[in-house]
Structure formats: structure tokens, C-alpha cells
Amino acid sequence: MLAAAYRNVCRHPKTQRALLKCFTVSKCARSFSTTRKFDPTIREFVSRLAQKQPSFKVASKDVHVLSQPSEFYQNLLNIIRRARRRIFLSSLYIGSSETELVNALDDALRRNPGLHLYLNLDYNRSTRPGPSSPILSLLPLLRSYEHRVHISLFRSPKLSGTMAKIVPPRFNEGWGTWHAKIYGSDDDVMISGANLNKAYFSNRQDRYLHFSAQPALADYCFSFLRTVSGFSYRVLANSASDGPVLHWEDTSVLPWQIQSKAERVLSQFQMKHLLSSISSPGNEEQANASDVVIFPIIQAGQFNIREEEDTLSMLFDHLASREHCIDQQPVMNLTSGYFGLSGEYQDLMLKSNIGCSIIAASPKANGFYGSRGLSGLIPEGYTLLEQRFMTAVRAASRSSPSNVLDGHNISLREWERDGWTYHAKGIWLSPSVDTPPVLTLFGSTNLNSRSANLDTELSFVMATSSDDLCQKLQEEIQGLHRWAVPWRGGERKIRWRTKAIVGLVGGML
Question: Between 381 and 238, whose confidence is greater?
């Protein structure tokens, strides 16, 4: 029945609303016993989100919140070594000198003849010219296991025609990248914002959540990557030369004209999984053991997929509607290594009455600090965006005089640790200043204009009723705040050329 309904939805978009409404009514009835376990601050929001996004119920004992880059790396190597059926990795790129990681993949493939490796990477970032081009380090795997290694390179169609020919490497990444960070094997999956190179394994701070023994969630992530492979380049080994062959398989559409196809297949993908979530009642024992619910949200602005924006708008609307219904005032923690909220997100925050503590990267903790050429101005560009944001905060009378989180004001701090850079991103929502988070948003999004409009992102909203998991999320926040100091951006001078560049390409930051 579900398959027939899904085919009907795909053929007749007008049927979608009626069919979905029918399913959601039954979903609401079945899920009440689950959603009522959540804190009243988020209970109605979780119920509403379950009507719009696919969802996965998880036991909190299977959710592991990691805090250090070294933990992330060791966990990555461990799930690769344990793999028997599939390894699926999605990242902006794999560093050209990651010999240990590539050797671990090679060893897993050699020991398990039935194992397949799937890699989804960004085209422009992975094919930078020169002997250290990231794609070259993967060719030995492709040659040794030609039929079991599947490498897909996503290329943003935003840059096309003459511009695609004249914009040089590195700069061409400014028009959008593949940005989803998913690291899975068999039924385990890690979600992060980290890429796959040495800094992210040692001294570049990010967030990392590992979900163990979760076949449904792992299948979703794997299927998402295979769906995107349908409008990506396939990498083939070239026996006649040292370089790869980049093959475009879909002859029905040109690589720079994939917008309509991508919008259609991603929308259908989400609808299929939403209907599956709605029609899978589970049993009472599973429902009682599941004290976590996870919602995947796709943001791909250039394909008119804006689930992240819709979700955050729904969240702020929900919180505003409850202002007079609760005794405690919810508070939010937010962080981004590239802080520059999109206009929509800034408006949501400033028009709300929710207190928010924000951590941004200090200039020295920005990954572009010390870079040569124009990219060396990027940290200063983010300082300019922070200054503009704080000006808007003060104009809205929302500035925190003590720079401490309270129930109404907004504070900005900057993360700085000697020898480290900062790449963490996400949101945590707590019922009050004195209680740990009951909801978090995590994944690849930087919550800025670039993430909203140019990059292709996959993030997740996770709600929990587990006291233990809530405490771990609180410890995650505290770990990030350990290296956060009061924002000093207002004291920094911005050069005229930085202002000019931000004026031209600010949406690409």
C-alpha cells in the first residue's frame, strides 16, 4: 500500500497534501505516547515536525556524544575496521596525505570480499590541480577494487558557462559545494561537521555524534548519498594515465542543468521517507525504549530545498506561541565556525524573546587565518559580519550587559585556543537557563547565507527525554565554552578592501 501511495504522490503532486494529511492524522494518534515524554517546551514542536520531516526513534544508550577530534578519528577508524557490508563516507574532501585512513579502507576491502566502499565528495575541492590533488590519493583504491569502490563527485551547477572556465580553482568553490558530513559503516553512522584531513583529526574543533546499531537511520543516510550520486560525476580509474576519468552518467541532463532534477529527486526522497516514518507504527516495547527522535533536514537553496529554514522558522514560531504558557523562559545556545547568520535567521532571532548565547571563531581560530592572497582576508570579513550583527542586536535592545546567558538577551563570545582552529556548528535549546538542552540541531550547516543558499547540506534535529543524554549535551556546550572569551570584534579595525570584498561576495562567506 505504501509503495502504491508513494508512486501516486510522485505522479500527482496535488494528491500529496490529501494523502499526507490522512497519514499524519494516524501518525499523531500513534506518536502521542512517544511525544508526550518530551519536555513541554518542545513537545508540540516535535509532534508538528514529525508531520513534515522523516523521523527515526532511537534509544539514548545508542547515542554517543564525542568531544575531541582524536575521538572522532579513532571512532572513524574503528567503524571502518568493523565494516562487513558497506562503508559510506561523505565529506567536502579527503586530505591528500591521509595515508592511515586510506590504508584502513584498503585493509577493510581486502579482508572482506563482499564489502563495498561509497564516497561522496565535492568536485571542485577534490580535483584541485597539482600533485597533492585529493582525488589522486583515492585512485589506488579504485584500481585495486574497481567494482567495489564507488566515488561520486558533486559539482554545484551555480557556476557554469564562461564563468566556470575563467574562475580559477579554489575560488570556484565559492559558488557552492557538497557539504554533507556523514561517516557510516553497516548500521553505524557518525554525523559531524568535520572533513577528512589531519587538522580535523587533531586540532580543529567540531561536533561529533555517533549512532550505533541503527539500521533505519544508517539506511536513510546511505540512500541519501546514493540519491545524490544520481546527479554527480562518477570517478573511474584510467589505465592509460595517472589521472582519473570523471564520467557523467545521466545523458538526459547536462551537469550544469541539474537544478530541476535535483529538486525533484530530493523532494521525492524526503516524501518517501516521511511516508515510511508515518506508516511504521513500531511496537510498544520499542516505543518505550526510544527516548530520542531524530529528524533529518536537507538544505539545498540552489535546488529550492529549504527544510532547515522551514524547521527553524517553525521552532521560533512555536517558542513565541508558548511565551505565556510556561513559567520558565527557554534559552538557546548557538555556534558556528563561520558565523554570519543569514538574514532570515537573524530576523527570527531578533524578533523572538529567546535568550541566546553565541560562540563564533576568533580570527586566529578561523581556518583561513594566515592564508595567502585574498583568502587571508576571510577572518576579517567574518569580524565585519559579527560587527553588523551586534549592531543589529543593540538596535533591538537585546544586547546582554553581562555577556552571560539569560532569558531574553543575546551574547556573543569568541572561541580561541592556542594552536587550534574552530569549526563547530549547531543549536541547543534548553527549557531554562538552569536546565540542560532537550533539543539540538547538528550536522553540516554553518547557519549562514552560504549554507542557506549555495552549499548542499544535511543536518539533523534531535529531541530527547533522556536525562543522561541531556546532561551529555550540556557537557558538550560547556566543553566549547571552556575556550570561549568575550567577543572583542568591536575593537578590531576592518580594512577598506575587506569591506569592498564582503560587499561583493558576502553571501559566499
Answer: 381
Helix or strand (DSSP H, E) at 24: helix 13-35
- Per DSSP bridges, beta strands 149-154 and 116-122 are parallel
Phi, psi of 441, deg, nearest 5: -110, 130
Model confidence pLDDT, tens digit, residues 436-450: 999 999 999 999 999
Which residue in 238, 239, 236, 181 sits closest to 210, CA to CA?
A: 181
Place of cell 553497516: 186
Closest C-alpha among 243, 23, 16, 230 to residue 133: 243
Give the pLDDT score at 326.
Answer: 63
**Positive or negative, the Cα torsion across 248, 253, 254, 256?**
negative
Cell 518517501, residue located: 272
Orientation angle between helical segments 378-395 and 496-505, nearest 10 degrees: 80
| pLDDT attached to residue 324 | 62
The closest of 117, 121, 175, 169 to 148, measured between CA atoms, is 117
Residue entry with cell 527549557 = 431
State the distance between the two ends of the chain, measured CA to CA, in whole angstroms: 46
Residue 479 CA neighbour count, 13 Å, CB half? 17
| Region 166-193 average pLDDT | 92
Closest C-alpha among 358, 350, 312, 313 to residue 332: 358
- d(CA 60, CA 293) in angstroms, rounded, equals 9
pLDDT digits (tens, 9 = 90+) for 263-312: 999 999 999 999 999 887 555 556 667 899 999 999 999 999 999 999 99
* Confidence class for position 30, pLDDT limits 50, 70, 90: very low
Q: What is the Cα–Cα distance from 292 to 59, expressed in whole angstroms?
A: 6
Which residue type sits at 172?
N
Task: Record the cell numbers describing residue 331, joined without a space.
Answer: 534559552
Q: In the structure grid, which three cell numbers stand for residue 211, read together?
A: 549512532
Check the CA dihedral 478-479-485-486 and report its sign: negative
| CB contact at 8 A, 426 and 449 | no
Residues facing residue 235 across a β-bridge: 246
Selection from 13, 65, 386, 55 nearest residue 220 by Cα: 55
